[in-house]
Write a structure and sequence with these properties.
It is a single chain. This protein is mainly α. The protein contains six helices and no strands. Helix 4 (55-76) packs antiparallel against helix 5.
Length: 195
Amino acid sequence: MGVRAGVVVCITSFLLGSLFTHWIADSLTLWKSPVTDEHLWTAALYYSILTKGPVQILYVLFGIIILGGTTIFWSFNDLEAGNLMFDGGSIFLYGVAVIMYAYSVIPNLMDKFTAIPPHHMKDAFPRLLRTPTLDLASNHLVCSVALTGVLILQAGRWWAELSDGDDEEGYLSEKVEDSDVAEEIKSTTPLASTT
């Protein structure tokens, strides 16, 4: 269990780090008010640069995502109560992040940002790109929150198993103490003689 949980935590942390690199663009469109044309051009230019990267990066990312999902399902397959609850929730949140990224983020990037129109930073931002730019930032946020939930559930699972281990040790030590007391009582109690 420890290796599987470690793999899930490492992969989820890696994916969160990958999403956090988009903060350069997302912070301008989600957290800066008002959203100016200059902010939108900066975000669109960043997303355009992402689409021009080598395709091998996507293959590595997909491989890491598949490894993470496989590891969570493998851990879920133990069918213990803790696994069903914590890994079941992790599977749901991980699936939400993967589906959101695969069906919303990547198509949006490839459809709208492979070629942005030539511009100056002070030019008016095209209306056709405004919604996709804001949607990308929102989708990145949803994926980040879902993956953070996976980390919280894995930490909760570790904590629950740690406290279960402490309870078992306490129960076993009480049982040993009870059996030691019973042995002492037997050995100090004089046998009744039958005469």
